[in-house]
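Risk register update: the risk of archive-format incompatibility is retired. Evidence:
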Amino acid sequence: MNGDTLFSIGDLARRTGLTVKAIRFYSDSGIVPPTDRSPAGYRRYGIDAVARLDLVRTLRDLGLDLPTIRRVVDREVSLPEVAAAHAEALDVQIRALRQRRAVLTAVARRGSTPEEMDLLHRLAKLSHDERRRMTDDFLGTVFDGLHDHPAFAAVTRSMTPCLPDDPTTGQVEAWVELAELFQDPEFRSSTRGLAMEMAADRAPGDATGLPRVLADCVRMQVVPALEAGIDPASSAAGPVVEAITAYYAGVLGRSGDAEVHRRLVARLESMDDPRKDRYLQLLAVINGRPVPESLAPMLDWSLEALRRSGQ
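Archived output:
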């Protein structure tokens, strides 16, 4: 066929794979106007109609609306401009779909009530500024009066979730769960109490900073004991207990007396909260960091060993 050949709607349907009804609709919309009409009044189209219909079908598959498609095929707007705008719109839709999927996954996993589902949905839809205000409110309560302390400023930063602009489904799910923890009054109070204990854990006259993290000492001493299968009630646990107690006594600037032992047990009991473990795990997911190992087995072992040694 040469360039002067004209096609009927049926010819175009066979060449493009579109239905006659769809082609007639595009023709009536002015997107693919007929080139001529037959003596009987039937529409006839030039070869360029095939290319236009192929473009229309592709743009429709990509989700573009008809007015935009008409502007593209009529060259009123460039295809790259339209593609960029729709890619940006799709990014927004993708983020919204991830949020919805995270909520539905959480609801299915927990067996949530309609009221709980509504809460999860609202938490997932929070804007960046709203998430920031919620985080600041939680951390402001936990570290109230301690923000001027240089060490606590660093602790606050390390406990701040930063959900990326294009989060994964897992990060959205983690944010929703973390936001629930923010609103748990008991968790807020417990975490506040732990912060105050940390502030009090300084040797007399040490006003410059916090001591080394007690959790690091527990991890360093107890992990080998766990790996070796040492029973916390056995005499073999004695050196570990002594090492942890001596460390904590040094933190307080005291000797390892009964008061230090009592205070150390109370301190580890405050730390041994599965919600605090969960907070750190969720925080790592949201911030794209490796998820830390749970301290719970180490704290449980330490507490049993300390209680046994104090009998």
